[in-house]
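Structure tokens please, single chain.
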Amino acid sequence: MPPEDRVSDQLEQWLRGDQPKTLGSLIDAFGKGSFAVAFVMLMALPALPLPTGGATHVLEIITMLLALELVVGRSCVWLPQRWHGVRLGGGSREKFINVLLRRIRWLERFSRPRGRWLFRRRVTGMIFGLAVFGLALTAFLAPPFSGLDTLPSIGVVVLALGVLLTDIALAAVGLVIGAAGVVTVITLGSVVVKGAGDLF
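Here you go.
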């Protein structure tokens, strides 16, 4: 992949630019069809192995909305105007995203276009949307302060990177990670909820 086309370089340029680090400016920078890059940035914080206590629910809700747009066949991102101002950088969150950039660069070293023809099909976008919706919903429903939203969120990020890099193998890895996250949330989440119920 030529250096100028690298996803990490494009994201870094956006992060270090003068524009506000909001969801609206991200969509403006990467184009109205920038579903995958929006998924990466929205789920970067939930993907961190830290209990968030529900602080990331807004990001997960926006992710689910965008995923549904893919499912119904939209090719352009649409968001309510008030969500254009959702911040994706700045302060400590920007430090988290810088860590993500390092991870993306590591993946780019090993990734190459595989199954590119699949990504040109409309049905692939719909399946992509369904997978992202299911994983984001799982992260949203994970018990707060449990950290169980991490795996499904990582699954979304890796899957979306697979789409951005047109690498079906990387996308499949994201699906496997996400599926493991769903199983983890269902099994361990029920234990956490039962334990909390026993306390009260």
